[in-house]
């Protein structure tokens, strides 16, 4: 069981950091975040968590070095460290294990595997405890599906927010969060009531309206920043969403209220 466990996630990629953060929170874990190796070492010493999930490639101090420091420190030596990496080479995995890690989790994440491996290593590094009665199977499966929907939705949303000017295709987006296009659309419908495409369109329109209100950027530049290569297409989409052209929207937004 991983419910109630204190997990430190050391990951510099915001989308992946928030993806695994959301998953662990939904599992009932107390989650702490670090964005680089130095920050990870500092927080591990401060918190002494039950387990550390650490990216292999980190700024300032890479995962191998950070892992060695923590496993050689008497204060944190007993904390299991699991590496997170997109690399599949055997040599890299061996380096991680030699540095003191107990396991490796590949990217993109398979969350059934993540939950199982965490449970195994937490059990091996903690005192046995009485297990609470499990929920009925149907309820557990429904809850698990809802959790996965939220994880996929929030992970994909971060990717979209970070790349409005050049968004990945839905297939690429699905691959980034470890699923397929059909499953990703199901998650978006569950969490937001719309498909990935419809959600992206609304994100673009909200960002465009904000840029028009708060900046003096030309309409063509606003269009480019929210992912439209053609200003005419942008103007058409904007008018369909707000009932007016970008230029008129800006003019009305600039008028003082009485």
Structural domain tally: 3
Portion in helices: 55-70%
Any idea what the shape is? elongated
| Main beta-sheet annotation | 5 strands, parallel
Write down the secondary-structure element order: EHEHEHEHEHHHHHHHH
Please state the CA-atom Rg, rounded to the nearest Å.
22 Å
Q: What's the CATH first level of the largest domain? A: Alpha Beta
Class from secondary-structure proportions: alpha/beta
**Count of distinct strands:** 5
End-to-end separation: 60 Å
The CATH superfamily of the largest domain bears the name: Response regulator
Q: How much beta, percentage-wise? A: 5-15%
Which residue ranges are poorly predicted, with pLDDT under 50 across at least 5 consecutive positions?
127-139
What does this structure look like?
The chain folds into three domains: 119 residues, Rossmann fold (3-Layer(aba) Sandwich), CATH 3.40.50.2300; 48 residues; 57 residues, Arc Repressor Mutant, subunit A. The protein has twelve helices and five strands. The protein is 57% helix and 9% strand. It is α/β, with parallel strands linked by helices and 258 residues long. The termini are far apart. Helix 3 links the parallel strand 3 and strand 4. Helix 1 runs antiparallel to helix 6, helix 2 packs parallel to helix 3 and helix 6 crosses helix 8. A five-stranded parallel beta sheet has the order 2-1-3-4-5, with helices on both faces.
């Amino acid at each position: 069981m991983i419910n109630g466990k204190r997990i430190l996630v050391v990951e510099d990629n915001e989308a992946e950091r928030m993806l695994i953060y959301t998953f662990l929170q939904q599992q009932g874990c107390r989650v702490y975040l670090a964005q680089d190796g130095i920050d990870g070492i500092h927080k591990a010493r401060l918190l002494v968590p039950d387990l550390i999930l650490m990216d292999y490639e980190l700024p300032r101090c890479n995962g191998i070095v950070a892992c060695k420091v923590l496993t050689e420190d008497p204060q944190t030596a007993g904390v299991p460290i699991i590496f997170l990496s997109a690399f599949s080479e055997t040599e890299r995995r061996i380096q991680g294990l030699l540095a003191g890690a107990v396991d490796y989790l590949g990217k993109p994440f398979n969350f059934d595997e993540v939950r199982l491996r965490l449970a195994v290593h937490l059990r091996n590094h903690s005192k046995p405890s009485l297990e609470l009665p499990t929920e009925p199977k149907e309820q557990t499966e429904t809850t698990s599906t809802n959790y996965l929907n939220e994880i996929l939705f929030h992970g994909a949303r971060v990717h979209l927010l970070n790349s409005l000017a050049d968004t990945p295709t839905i297939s690429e987006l699905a691959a980034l969060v470890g699923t397929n296009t059909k499953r990703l659309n199901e998650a978006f419908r569950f969490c937001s009531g719309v498909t990935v495409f419809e959600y992206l369109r609304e994100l673009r329109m909200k960002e465009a309206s904000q840029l028009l209100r708060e900046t003096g950027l030309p309409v063509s530049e606003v269009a480019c920043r929210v992912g439209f290569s053609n200003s005419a297409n942008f103007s058409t989409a904007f008018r369909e969403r707000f009932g007016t052209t970008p230029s008129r929207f800006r003019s009305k937004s600039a008028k003082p209220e009485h």
